[in-house]
Amino acid sequence: MTDARETAPAQAPAPVPLLDPRDGIPPVTADPQALEGVVAAFAAGSGPVAVDAERASGYRYGQRAYLVQLRRAGAGTALIDPVGCPDLTTLNSALAGTEWVLHAATQDLPCLTELGMHPTALFDTELAGRLAGFPRVGLGAMVEQVLGYALEKGHSAVDWSTRPLPEPWLRYAALDVELLVDLRDALEEELRTQGKLDWALQEFAAIAAAPPPPPRVDPWRRTSGMHKVRRRRQIGVVRELWLARDRAARERDVSPGRVLSDAAIVTAALENPPNVQALAALPGFGHRMGRRQLDQWQAAVDRARGLPERELPQPTAAYNGPPPPRAWADKDPAAAARLSAARAAVTALADELNLPQENLITPDTVRRLCWSPPAETTPEAVAATLADLGARPWQIQLTTPLLTKSLAARPAPPQ
C-alpha cells in the first residue's frame, strides 16, 4: 500500500507577512521645498520607478489623488501629499524617459495626469498578470503568488483625504510600492518564458500613448437600478435628480452617493411624488434630510414633470455601434451567425493561450467587425479593419485567421 503522505501534493510555503518598509516610513512631502528634495533624489536614482496613488473614492467628489507613492533604486520611497503639492511637473520632468511600474495603470493615470505626471513608458503588473494567465491579479494576490510575501490590504478603501494621515495608513501606502519593481522583474521573466513579452510591451505602449478618455455621454444613465425605469417621463426624473445631486456633490466636495443614493433617485422616478411631503415619505428621503434638501430634490422632480415631450430623454442612449447582440438574430441573421462563430473561435484560442478573451481581442472589436465586415473578407482586409478598430499588432496577427474564417459563417437554414 502506498503511503498517502508520499502522494499528497506538496504544500506551497506560507507567504511571509510584509509588515514594514525596509527603509521605514518616509515623512510625507507636503510643501514645495520638500518636493525639491524628492525631485533631486529621484532624478539621481536608477532603474524603473514604482508609482501608486490613493484616492478618496466614496468619500470625495471626483477621482483626484490624495497621496502619491514612489520608489526607485538609489532614491528610496517618497510619499507626496498632492494637497500641499498639487503640481508635480518638476517630478515628471525628472523622471523623463524612466519606465514607470504601476498596478492597474489605467486606474491611476487619470489622477496622476491631473497633477502633471504621465509616463512615456510603463509596465503594468496587473495587465502582465492577466497576459501570463494568473487567476488572481490584485496586487496582494500577485505579490503573494509571485514573490511569496503577504501584503496587508486593510486600508485600501479608507478616506485618503483625511489629514493628518494615520501612521498605519502611511505604512500601508509605502508597502504598496515596496515590491512593485521586484514584481515587475519576475513577471517580465515569466512573460518572456511564455513567449508573451512582446504582447505585453505592445499593450503597455498603447496605454502610455492613449489620450485622456473623453467625458462620458449621459453619465446619469449609469444610475444603479436604472433598468427598472421604463417611461420617458420617469427617465427624465432620474436625469434631473442625478444632475441636481452632482451639482450639490461638487459644491460640497462629497461623493454623490453620500448626498443622495441611487436607490432613492430610482424610487422617486418610479413614484413621481407630487410634493415635498410625498417625497419625504419615500425611502432615502427620510427624517434626517432637511427641508432645504427636500426642496431641491422636489424641484428636480417638478422640472422633469414640466418638460415638453420633445425634451424628454430617449429610453436608450445614442450609440454609433452595432445593436445589442441579443437583437442580431432578428435584425441580421447573417451577422448573428458571424458573431457566434467568432466568439467561439476567440474563446478557444484564448483558452489555448491561457489568457482572458478580452485581452486577446476586445468583445466590442469583435462585434463591430461581425456587424459591419469589410466588403472583401480577405485576411488583409480583416487585419486592416482590426487595426482601424484599435487592435494591437500581436492581436491582429493571432486573431485575423480565425476571424476571417468566422466571417464566412452562414445562419442555419430554417427547420
Automatic annotation (TrEMBL):
Protein origin, superkingdom: Bacteria
Name of the protein: Ribonuclease D
One Pfam family recorded for the sequence: DNA_pol_A_exo1
Top-level taxonomy: Bacteria, Bacillati, Actinomycetota, Actinomycetes, Kitasatosporales
Domain HRDC: 231-311
CDD domains: RNaseD_exo
InterPro entries xrefs: 3'-5'_exonuclease_dom (IPR002562), Exo_C (IPR041605), HRDC-like_sf (IPR010997), HRDC_dom (IPR002121), HRDC_dom_sf (IPR044876), RNase_D-like (IPR051086), RNaseH-like_sf (IPR012337), RNaseH_sf (IPR036397)
Region (Disordered): 1-25, 307-328
